[in-house]
Prior knowledge:
single chain; 2 domains; 7 helices; 13% strand; 35% helix; alpha+beta; four-stranded antiparallel sheet
Amino acid sequence: MALSPTAAQRRVIDAADPVTGRLRGTRAQLAALVKRGLAFRHPRPPHDHFLTPAGHRIREAPAGPAEAPAREPAVPAPGGVFAARVGGEETAAGDAGPARLREVRGAWQGLLELRRMTHSDGSRDRPCAWERAHLVQAAALALEAAGLCPAGPGGGGGYRVRATPQPEAVAVHEPDPSALRGCATALEEAGWQVGEHTEPRTRERYLLASPRKV
């Protein structure tokens, strides 16, 4: 069972890479996080340390009053934490420009590297444990990295990625049938299993997507 970190260890966790979970700290700090089940040391050189799913949960939990300064807001911002667009967000003016494209491209490349480093066979073509622990964000990143557009705050066209009661599955809604098929293709190419379904009451077509394991 993972043990709660000290305030100093929490600061190391908060400073982890927002996508890969790669940690930076002293040897003693990293070893202590491994002992608590909040980090692991990669077996291959350069033997970097990464957050475990328990470490990611600690990172996303609100910090207590004794653990100031507080973690950075989980919104896309210069120097802040990257967050993939799930659809329906209020977006800042100019936030869909070249800077955002670079952020998305960098986040996607970081995620592919995390796949390579955490799969025993070095595979980059199927989701990793981080993605299975962050289904909505992972699916949204795959869609945005493929160049697809999320829905705006007022609805209309664009995808929306939402959690579902099913384990390891997200729903993707897109009112345009051809765009919905484009979402399915993008997710399949990113290593997800995708099925198209019909909502019985509204007759709306939507996708159910799950990370492929093999």
